[in-house]
Amino acid sequence: MSKDSVPKAIAFVALKGGVGKTTSAYNYGEWLVNHSKKVLFIDLDQNCDLSQTLQSYKATNTVRYIFQPEDGHADIINIKPNLDLITGDPDMEDVEYDLALKTNKYMRLYLWFIKNIDSLMKYDYIIMDCHPDFGTITKNAIILSDVLLSPITPQKAAYNKKGILRERISELSQEAIDYKSGDTFVTAKLWFYGNNIAHNTRASRELKAQLENEKDVIGIIPKREIFNTSLTDNIPIAEMEKENSKYSRFKDFFSEMNDFYEKVTTKINSL
Question: Going by DSSP bridges, is the β-strand pair 77-80/8-12 parallel, antiparallel, or unpaired?
Answer without folding.
Answer: unpaired
